[in-house]
Amino acid sequence: MNKLLKRILKLIKQIFQQFSYNEQPTVPSSNRPLETPAIIPPIPTFAPQWQNGLILVCSQCTVEQFSDSYHRVSSGTTASEELQKWLKSRLKFDRLWGKYRVVSTSCLGVCPEERVAVVLYHNVVGQQCFIISSYSEREILYSYIKRINH
Fold first, then answer.
1. Could you tell me the superkingdom of the organism this chain comes from (predicted)?
2. Contact at 8 Å (CB) between 120 and 127?
3. Please, are residues 134 and 64 in contact by the beta-carbon 8 Å criterion?
4. Separation between Cα atoms, residue 2 and residue 72, nearest integer Å
5. Rounded to 5 degrees, what are φ and ψ at 132?
6. Sign of dihedral through CA atoms 130, 102, 76, 136?
7. Over the stretch 44-86, which tens digit does the pLDDT of each residue have?
């Protein structure tokens, strides 16, 4: 039993020594100069023109095309691309382009079936996620964007 206890104590001592070698001392020894913290250079920033809102449209959502009776999409255009173009043109028409920016983004991790995920960030209401599936729903989304703008 004594032999076993001595062996366990020896192993514990080795473990503590191993950890103490890996740790950096918090108080500098008299033999070592003080280490200066790394200086992080500043990164230029700017105030974007679209500071009111940012609209992120997932480019990975459905490759299905809008094909409802209200709107036909030209061949080769995905629902995500069409929604992004539509939002941009509506914002320009209502002179809100510049206050808002519509940006295509990679997967947002929502992955709705036959729908498009959209994240709206607005400086007043914060961040909201929408799932758009049809012509009427994008009109509702746009109405919401216009309402929070006023």
1. Bacteria
2. yes
3. no
4. 86
5. -105, 135
6. positive
7. 888 777 777 899 999 887 754 444 433 444 556 788 888 999 9
